[in-house]
Design goal:
The structure holds two protein chains of two kinds.
Chain A: E1 10-21, E2 24-35, E3 38-43, H1 50-57, E4 65-70, E5 73-75, H2 79-82, E6 86-89, H3 101-112, H4 117-125, H5 141-153, E7 159-163, H6 171-186, E8 190-195, H7 198-202, E9 207-212, E10 215-221, H8 222-226, E11 233-237, H9 240-249, E12 253-257, E13 260-264, H10 272-280, E14 286-291, H11 296-303, E15 313-314
Parallel strand pairs in A: 3-8, 3-9, 6-7, 7-8, 10-15
Antiparallel strand pairs in A: 1-2, 1-4, 4-5, 9-10, 11-13, 11-14, 12-13
Chain B: H1 2-14, H2 16-40, H3 45-71, H4 76-79, H5 95-128, H6 130-137, H7 141-179, H8 188-215, H9 219-242, H10 248-251, H11 253-262, E1 264-272, E2 278-286, H12 287-311
Helix pairs in contact in B: 1-7, 2-5, 2-7, 5-7, 5-8, 7-8, 8-9, 8-11, 8-12, 11-12
The chains are: A alpha/beta, B mainly alpha.
């Protein structure tokens, strides 16, 4: 990794990105902001536009509208200047089937001017040393993924982009890959990982961008996004109907959940002790009481519920500081729609500005 | 660019198809030499004496048959046929003949092999998807295209040198053993065929690479060339037999390729005259015209492939 004195504060910035295939918008006014350092989850269901976005970032596809930056450099215009700082795997690892793992990496190393002894190093690093001389076609899916990781490490990049890296991996492989990504981020790199398995990424991501149908639904630090709404309290009580009546009269919102009730309040969090007291004074004894911690999956489902605004959860703000520019109206991702856009995918009313690098759980 | 060239050269020479086609081309060249030995080996004095006797006998038989033919009331011109001496007593080969024949065969073998290797060189990148990986490392597409093209030309030229070299060494040995050192002269024009054969092979590789880039596969360019060949055969037959659109003979790739390789092409076709009689017309293609034609064709192929490669969306 190298220090670049004129680096932007962000590893990736995407604004108003659009791409259509035969009149169907694969990516529609998408906004994404990836701070430097840490793991950034790029989340959304299959077909939501994650791979298309990554391909546009890497110059493999042409964007129809919008701007993209890698380390402050506009891409694809200045992609050749910045590509040495980026290692990427797009979808499945793709190499020459009949060449060995070592040969495939040696060709890449030769093409980008990396010393050939680096090939052995990265192969050992990902645990492929013993199979380095086997043909790529004989590799298991997990080994192919590891070879792809080794390929991304050849350049010792500052930003690693992994597109659905755990597809097809067994649980052991998934665990190993998660550890690898975390370790890379902890060593100061930025890891952008796309996945449709939100719970999996939640375990390692410091920040996320959640998209659906090519549009940004939310983005920001994981903790901030999950704290965006109060966690419901789940209660099991013998006379559920009576309990629901009591809690509703107390101004709480009650939803049945199988044999239990989910208690929320619009304006503030519900405390479990409050629920226990309300029911206890009426002689309704609680047999189970717990706070339901929200996860990204629930957040996603909530964001995509009919009637929900499909955007407006941009919680990032490029940090200001010495040499940094203050965030203001018109800055991408700062609550003002890009010219010619509808404003979806950027912050709307209620936007929080809660993010700063030092607030994140991961290494900055 | 030099890094890309090294990497592409490394890949070219690491491919099994390259070595397979090289071995195949060498085997074909050896077959050509074997066939040439059978076809051009001079007759021994005993064989020539026997051939002279056979010729004399055939002449006598022919004279008798002509007489019978005329006696039967047939027009004299329909009966006037006689055997040719060259049908029985072969002219001894010249070194020029051997060089020319070897060069033509080696050009055909080399060009076909180069076309397949080069098309596969690019087609494999599309098939395996490794082009996407490559471009995420080296996004300068013009340089990527150029480095591959240079390697294709160099690899094809090397293939041509090996096949042409092997063929010419074989022909030299034949000429030396049949004609002696005194017979090793007079092949100046034919060495031109050798040189142009090298150009044709390199160009054939480049064309295969360009078509594979345009179509995004290995098979499509080969199928396209096969289709073009069949189409021009059909057009050629129609033109020669019916006399329709004789200008087609001037613009057929096959004829221009022949003219370029051999330095000249000519053929005749029959045209119906004003009074209904058939008139034989001559079509000629010179080296200059063929060079211009093939140069333009190759330039269009390269420009189209470059345009396609730099604009292609890689999935």
């Amino acid at each position: 990794m190298t220090d670049h004195p004129h680096d932007a504060a962000l590893a990736v910035r995407v604004t108003g990105l659009r791409k259509t295939y035969r009149a169907i918008a694969a990516v529609d006014n998408l906004t994404m902001t990836v701070p430097k350092g840490g793991v950034h989850g790029f989340l959304g269901p299959n077909g939501s536009g994650k791979t298309t976005t990554i391909r546009m970032l890497l110059g493999l596809l042409r964007a129809e509208a919008g701007t993209m930056e890698l380390f402050g450099e506009p891409v694809p215009q200045r992609l050749p200047q910045v590509i040495d700082r980026v290692g990427a795997i797009v979808e499945q690892p793709r190499f020459f089937e009949n060449f060995t793992g070592r040969k495939n990496l040696a060709l890449l190393a030769q093409g980008i001017g990396v010393p050939i002894n680096r090939v052995g190093e990265v192969l050992e690093q990902v645990g492929l040393g013993p199979r380095a001389t086997s043909a790529f076609r004989t590799y298991s899916l997990g080994m192919k993924q590891r070879l792809a990781v080794a390929a991304t490490l050849l350049k010792n990049p500052d930003l690693l982009i992994f597109d659905e890296p755990t597809n097809g991996l067994d649980p052991q492989g998934i665990h190993e890959f998660r550890s690898t990504m975390r370790a890379l981020a902890d060593s100061g790199r930025t890891v952008l990982v796309s996945s449709h398995i939100l719970a999996e990424v939640q375990q390692i991501a410091d920040t996320v961008t959640i998209i659906a149908r090519g549009r940004t639904l939310a983005e920001g630090p994981v903790g901030t996004l999950l704290a965006g709404a109060a966690d419901p309290v789940r209660v099991v009580v013998g006379d559920a109907a009576a309990a629901a009546r009591v809690l509703t009269e107390a101004g709480l919102t009650v939803q049945p959940d199988a044999a239990a009730l989910l208690i929320t309040r619009a304006e503030a969090a519900v405390h479990p002790a409050e629920v226990a007291r309300l029911l206890g004074v009426r002689g309704l004894w609680v047999s189970e009481l717990s706070v339901q911690r929200r996860n990204l999956e629930q957040l996603y489902l909530q964001l995509t519920e009919p009637g929900q605004q499909p955007a407006g959860h941009t919680l990032f703000e490029p940090p200001t500081g010495p040499g940094g520019r203050p965030a203001g109206p018109g800055a991408p991702g700062q609550g003002t729609p890009a010219p010619g856009t509808s404003g979806q995918g950027t912050s709307g009313p209620g936007t929080s500005e809660q993010w700063a690098p030092e607030n994140r759980g991961g290494a900055a | 660019m030099s890094r890309l060239l090294k990497a592409e050269l490394n890949r070219w020479f690491s491919r099994r198809l390259w070595w397979a086609m090289l071995l195949g081309a060498v085997a074909m060249a050896l077959l050509v030499l074997l066939g040439s030995s059978q076809a051009y080996q001079p007759q021994t004095p005993a064989q020539i004496a026997q051939a002279e006797r056979d010729y004399a006998e055939a002449q006598q038989q022919a004279e008798q048959e002509v007489k019978n033919c005329i006696d039967a009331g047939q027009p004299v011109e329909d009966c006037a046929w006689m055997p040719q001496r060259s049908d029985f007593v072969a002219e001894p080969p010249t070194y020029a003949m051997l060089v020319g024949t070897g060069a033509q065969s080696a050009t055909l073998i080399g060009a076909l092999a180069a076309l397949v290797v080069a098309a596969s060189f690019m087609g494999a990148e599309f098939k395996s998807g490794s082009l996407a990986t490559w471009l995420t490392y080296v996004p300068r597409r013009v340089q990527v295209f150029a480095s591959k093209a240079v390697v294709v030309v160099l690899g094809s030229a090397l293939l041509s040198v090996l096949v042409q070299g092997l063929t010419q060494v074989g022909m030299l040995i034949y000429a030396w053993s049949w004609l002696g050192t005194a017979g090793l002269h007079g092949a100046g024009d034919e060495w031109g065929i050798v040189g142009r054969g090298l150009v044709v092979t390199a160009a054939s590789g480049l064309l295969g690479y360009c078509l594979a880039t345009l179509f995004g596969s290995t098979i499509a360019p080969l199928a396209t060339l096969l289709g073009v060949t069949v189409a021009q055969w059909m057009a050629g037959i129609i033109t020669l037999l019916v006399g329709v659109a004789p200008w087609l003979l001037q613009v057929m790739p096959d004829n221009n390729l022949y003219a370029f390789t051999n330095g000249h092409f000519e053929t005749t076709y029959l045209e119906r005259g004003r009074s209904g009689e058939e008139v034989e017309r001559l079509v000629q293609i010179g080296l200059g015209q063929a060079s211009l034609y093939l140069g333009c064709l190759l330039t269009i192929a390269v420009a189209s492939a470059l345009w396609s490669f730099t604009r292609r969306e890689v999935r």
